[in-house]
Design brief:
The complex is a heterodimer.
Chain A: H1 4-12, E1 39-41, E2 47-49, H2 54-71, H3 73-81, H4 85-109, H5 116-124, H6 126-161, H7 172-189, H8 194-220, H9 239-248, H10 255-260, H11 268-298, H12 300-306, H13 310-355, H14 374-390, H15 393-420, H16 435-451, H17 455-475
Antiparallel strand pairs in A: 1-2
Helix pairs in contact in A: 2-8, 2-11, 2-13, 3-9, 3-12, 4-9, 4-11, 4-15, 4-16, 5-6, 5-15, 6-7, 6-13, 6-14, 6-15, 6-17, 7-13, 7-14, 8-11, 8-13, 11-12, 11-13, 12-13, 13-14, 15-16, 15-17
Chain B: E1 11-17, H1 26-32, E2 36-44, H2 51-75, E3 81-87, H3 90-101, E4 105-108, E5 118-122, H4 128-139, E6 146-151, H5 158-171, E7 179-184, H6 189-196, E8 202-206, H7 212-217, H8 220-227, E9 232-235
Parallel strand pairs in B: 1-2, 1-4, 2-3, 5-6, 5-8, 6-7, 8-9
Antiparallel strand pairs in B: 4-9
Classes of the chains: A mainly alpha, B alpha/beta.
């Protein structure tokens, strides 16, 4: 004899269920198990082409991350931690790797748009899912705003380099605003070959950086140029290394963005883990090398006085005016590519939660004229402009990191939950070795990093999560997503 | 009736950009009906839009539009398969489906009034058996002619290639009266084919080799289809060589 209520609960576990206040239910398009290397097949039998290869995946990861770590943070980080800032970046890389491994396993089991939100909502349920989904939308908005302020700094520095007299007014925020609006507009109109362009931009950037770091590295080791007096590694003790790690973790927010486009990645079982782990390794090495070169060139104190564009002064000291110009251009490219990749990820994050009826499904409507999701893009670009106007680099970066770290920590928890009770359909191509240890340490260190942030960032982050939970209770408390496809 | 010695019944892939209102001329449908036909309704999305998102909103419309086109083929007496795909890259999707279906040729549609005379420009290595199977099947019950046009080029013996294709066609039972042959050596083959397209109703040509020029400006077949008045049937090389 079977209790009807239990029966109902068992049946409902097969597919998403419940409805939000508007009466919308989660939309089931295609089960992730129906994914092949080249397509996903929908319930009605239509094919969804996967068109991003491994290079494209790495370009998304590296392109999103590289803007911040090299072109915004070196001065700020060196000011807070001294040469030990290199250690801060290394800590960030290790935590990112600990999260990238579980994220890879989950992504190969569920290669669908939405990334971290999707895994958490399926493994842990609709409430954590909703909190993460809405937080990550806003987290990406904060990250985008941060990249755009970085862009403004580079554009202003370039104008100054070109000899344009700006008087005393700061043009950093206006330039960031103009470019943010421009990027949103371009994305609304739909750009052909945007993905290919991203590959070339990232390739060019990596070339400039490798040349610059190669020369700077040889100099720092005393092989070429004059030897400089070594500086104490931790002038302020070990603690600032950890608080700085919390700040600069924004430089590693890109790898999980690869998972948000998982539905478009070819051969996801192979390419997703390689792209996520590979992009973390690439940028991690570049970041540590950059800090090493930068602190060797100037010492951390003068470096911190150069602010957001400190790396330009480092380049000037090695390559003169041309070196400075090359790095300025690289900085413009890097911050634009980070901002653009984040706007696109934001729109996909909005799509993922609206598909599951956690926010009105109108948010994922597309317009016929350009074929772009205009509501979701506006929900990305609009709030970004408000935040850019604040111009608060450090708070923007930390809140973005806060909201991402919550998702990263919960992704690790989601992996442990999934493995403990594997559903029939759970068949990842990539399995994390020693998953309890990796995911456990990943979760703990993600949450611990939050503890090292400024109180202002922590308060804003917690407030956003509470608001997200409140929204779920108000709007979509009936929606059930746990354990379904 | 079919006493033709067809080796391999030709399969033609007909990709149609359904949501852009693209369709296939009824006369072309009738002409293609002797071959096995696969209709691929596709929709190209900008990089900003996930394919899943587009399918949620447009899948029903795309499927209905593809079915409408399939219905026209059914009226012409040929049952067709339909497939629907959402993609960021048209060529990738068409190539994948063509390989998946083992298609011998892919149609690049252009409007056409009445199909009778076929132009077959021969500019290089081409799968002669597939070409002959296709042209012989399509012309078997029609009265139109096939003009085999050898385009002389460096290291390519056009008269010999034309003769070989003529023999293959004759071997498949196509009456000699329906086959014409000629050769010439134009400076720009693509432009020459486009110019002559007005005198014919359909162009059948091989894929041609990839080159730097093709990578920059599109395949020769695509440039012909863009400039030509007539639709183009591209005979695919056998998989394994190109893939």
């Amino acid at each position: 004899m079977c209790d009807p209520a239990l029966r109902w609960a068992m049946d409902s576990a097969e597919e998403p269920a419940g409805a939000n206040r508007n009466g919308e239910s989660p939309a089931a398009v295609a089960a992730p198990t129906e994914a092949t290397e080249e397509t996903t097949v929908t319930a009605e039998g239509s094919e969804l082409e996967r068109s991003i290869g491994l290079t494209g995946g790495i370009a998304i990861g590296v392109g999103t991350m590289i803007g911040a770590g090299i072109f915004v943070f070196p001065g700020i980080a060196a000011g807070r931690a001294g040469p030990a800032a290199a250690g801060s970046f290394a800590i960030g890389a290790v935590i990112a790797l600990l999260v990238a491994l579980p994220a890879s396993e989950l992504a190969t089991a569920m290669p669908k748009s939405g990334g971290g939100y999707y895994f958490i909502s399926r493994a842990l349920g609709a409430l954590p899912g909703a909190v993460v989904g809405i937080s990550i939308w806003l987290g990406l908005v904060f990250a985008t705003a941060f990249y755009l302020v970085g862009f403004g700094n580079y554009a202003a520095a370039l104008l100054a380099e070109a000899g344009v007299d700006l008087g005393s007014a700061s043009v950093v925020v206006p330039l960031g605003l103009v470019f943010g609006a421009l990027l949103t507009g371009l994305n609304l109109m739909g750009t052909e070959n945007a993905a290919k362009l991203q590959n070339y931009v990232v390739g060019l950037l990596l070339t400039i950086l490798v040349v610059f770091l190669g020369y700077g590295g040889l100099d720092a080791l005393g092989i070429v140029g004059a030897t400089s007096a070594p500086e104490q590694f931790m002038p302020f003790g070990p603690m600032p290394m950890f608080t700085t790690a919390a700040l600069v973790f924004t430089s590693y927010l890109g790898f999980a963005q690869v998972a948000t486009v998982a539905g478009d990645i070819k051969d996801p079982g192979r390419n997703l883990p390689l792209a996520m782990i590979g992009s973390v390794l690439v940028v991690g090495v570049l970041y540590v090398a950059t800090i090493f070169v930068a602190t060797s060139a100037f010492g951390s104190d003068p470096l911190s006085r150069f602010g957001e564009t400190a790396i330009v002064e480092v380049a000037r000291s090695y390559g003169g005016g041309w070196g400075a110009l090359a790095i300025l251009l690289a900085g413009l490219l890097a911050t634009v590519s980070s901002a653009n990749a984040s706007i696109l990820s934001t729109s996909r994050a909005v799509f993922a939660i609206s598909k599951d009826a956690l926010i009105p499904q109108r948010a994922s409507r597309m317009n016929l004229r350009y074929g772009t999701p205009h509501v979701a893009l506006a929900m990305a670009g609009g709030p970004v402009l408000v935040l850019v106007a604040s111009g608060e680099v450090e708070v923007l970066a930390e809140v973005a990191s806060f909201l991402h770290l919550v998702m990263y920590g919960l992704m690790c928890v989601a992996l442990i939950a999934m493995r403990r009770n594997e559903p029939d359909w759970y068949d990842p191509d990539f399995r994390v070795p020693a998953h309890r240890l990796v995911a456990g340490v990943g979760a703990l260190s993600s949450f611990a990093l939050i503890g090292f942030m400024q109180p202002a960032s922590q308060i804003i982050g917690v407030a956003i999560m509470l608001a997200a939970a409140g929204w779920y209770k108000y709007y979509a408390s009936d929606v059930r997503l746990k354990g379904v496809l | 009736m079919s006493d033709l010695a067809i080796r391999e019944p030709p399969r033609v892939l007909v990709p149609v950009e359904v949501l852009e209102g693209e369709s296939i001329s009824p006369s072309l449908v009738e002409f293609l009906a002797p071959a096995e036909v696969i209709v691929l309704g596709y929709h190209v999305l900008p990089d900003q839009t996930p394919t899943e998102q587009a399918s949620m909103q447009f899948e029903d419309r795309a499927r209905a539009a593809a079915e409408d086109i399939a219905a026209v083929f059914r009226e012409a007496g040929r049952d067709v398969e339909t497939r629907v795909a959402f993609t960021h890259d048209r060529d990738q999707t068409v190539d994948r489906v063509a390989a998946d279906e083992g298609a011998t040729a892919v149609l690049l549609p252009n409007p056409v009034a009445e199909v009778s005379d076929v132009l077959v420009p021969i500019r290089g290595a081409i799968d002669r058996d597939r070409l002959a199977d296709l042209v012989a099947t399509l012309l078997a019950e029609a009265s139109g002619s096939a003009t085999l046009w050898g385009l002389d080029g460096e290291g390519f013996d056009a008269p010999a290639a034309v003769e070989a294709v003529r023999e293959s066609l004759a071997g498949r039972g196509l009456p000699a009266a329906q086959i014409r042959t000629e050769t010439s050596a134009p400076e720009s083959p693509v432009r020459a084919i486009v110019e002559r397209s007005a005198d014919f109703d359909l162009i059948v040509m091989g894929e041609g080799e990839g080159s730097l020029f093709a990578a920059l400006f599109g395949d020769a077949t695509e440039r012909v289809a863009e400039g030509a008045v007539a639709p183009v049937l591209v005979v695919r090389d056998r998989d394994g060589g190109a893939d």
